[in-house]
Amino acid sequence: MNYKLITCIFSNNKGKAIIEYLSKEKTIITADRSNSRGTSLSNARGIEMEVITVLVEQSQADEIFEYLFFEAELDKPHNGIIYQQNIKKASKYSLPKED
User: In the predicted model, is pLDDT for residue 55 greater than 80?
Assistant: First the structure.
């Protein structure tokens, strides 16, 4: 099975809600959220950015990429960046069922 790793860096503090949506609505549990700080021409003040990484099966990649792009408001100028890359190997991961 082929996988894609999608990385999304953005500044609108929607990361928690995005991760919850991916888990509940798309049953994606291979996602992580962290924070980053740096400067660039469009981020001269060094605003803290959120970073989400999501590992998905290749068949889901376009759908999840599009969801992240619009939900993180990357269609607006200077809000962040998103990219995906091929992953050569990954293990199927699942959470234990709750009682």
Answer: yes
Q: Global pTM?
A: 0.82
Q: In what order do the strands lie in the sheet with 80-87?
A: 31-36, 49-57, 3-10, 80-87
| Domain covering 3-87 assigned CATH 3.30.70.120 in the classification | yes
Strands (E), the chain: 3-10, 31-36, 49-57, 80-87
pLDDT one-digit tens code per residue, 60-92: 999 999 999 999 999 988 788 999 999 987 776
Q: Contact 49/9 with Cβ under 8 angstroms?
A: yes
Binned at pLDDT 50, 70 and 90, residue 42 comes out as low
Instruction: Please give the structure tokens belonging to residue 69.
Output: 């792009």
Residue with tokens 């890359």: 85
CA–CA gap between residue 51 and residue 11 (Å, rounded): 9
Domain edges within the chain: 3-87
User: What secondary structure letter does DSSP report for 12?
Assistant: S
